[in-house]
Amino acid sequence: MGNPSPATIAIVTGGEGGIGAAIVSRLAALGLRVVSADIATAPGATGDDAVIRRRLDLTDAASIDAFVEEAGALGTIVALVNCAGIIAECTAEEVPGPGVRRMLDVNLLGAAHMTAAIAPLMTRGGAIVNISSISSRLPELANAVLYGASKSALETYTRASARALAPKGIRVNSLAPGFIDVAMTDAMRTIAYGEGSPLRRVAAGRMGTADEIAACVEFLLSDQASYVVGATLVVDGGLALN
Question: Does the keyword Oxidoreductase apply (predicted)?
Fold first, then answer.
């Protein structure tokens, strides 16, 4: 990522969510000009000098293309964080409905479209981080099996795109958060455990914070991670140990 400056741009999709907002704040504090893109952002929102806020619908190819064209005119893009994600309930025995198809469009195809569109605008030394989920490793998420599948597919896409973009000097990695104290994982925990507490399975004995995830994203984007390519960093407090 080199030396951040207001002329260097970082893009964060899902920037209005709990983890996304923490990533936006952390990258802005480093001196990057951050473009926060989210479907929850009001049309025409502008933000401030450090953070530009734009509405983006990852299920709409025209919305993505218009966003990329605008972002490319702002400066040199050095970082992309595909953080946008939604969850939809569906068991392995159910026929996937429209909500599940939308989830796949956002969680997987949206990230792939953003990567393919932004990568040609990045210079050597650029980096991409895809936010996956520990759900890709939790079979007990039986009521949201395709959410976990979408994240597993995102990790596969991470490895494939990392191999394709590495010769161009662009690194791609993913990060799989565990139970983080944000609304998105509240929904995931409720689906998996109902009213029961999953913390008994977490070796650290607590939930993680969005700031802890943002710190790990900062590392993956930084030059300190220059030899980390196509990896998935699991940040789950030891949940996957059980």
Answer: yes
Residue 147 appears among annotated catalytic residues: yes
Work out the number of other CB atoms within 10 angstroms of the CB of residue 17.
23
3-state secondary structure the chain: CCCCCCCEEEEEECCCCHHHHHHHHHHHHCCCEEEEEECCCCCCCCCCCCEEEEECCCCCHHHHHHHHHHHHCCCEEEEEEECCCCCCCECCCCCCCHHHHHHHHHHHHHHHHHHHHHHHHEEEEEEEEEECCHHHHCCCCCCEHHHHHHHHHHHHHHHHHHHHHHHHCCEEEEEEECCECCHHHHHHHHHHHCCCCHHHHCCCCCCECHHHHHHHHHHHHCHHHCCCCCCEEEECCCHHHC
Residues 161 and 196: their CA atoms lie apart, in Å, by 38
Q: What is the set of domains in the chain, with CATH numbers?
A: 8-241 (3.40.50.720)
Contact 20, 13 (CB under 8 A): yes
pLDDT per residue rounded down to tens, the chain (242 residues): 666 655 799 999 999 999 999 999 999 999 999 999 999 987 766 667 799 999 999 999 999 999 999 999 999 999 999 999 998 877 767 777 898 999 999 999 999 999 999 999 999 999 999 999 998 887 766 677 889 999 999 999 999 999 999 999 999 999 999 989 888 766 666 655 555 566 777 899 888 999 999 999 999 999 999 999 999 999 999 988 87
Which residue of the set 147, 157, 193, 227 is catalytic?
147
Q: What's the length of the chain?
A: 242
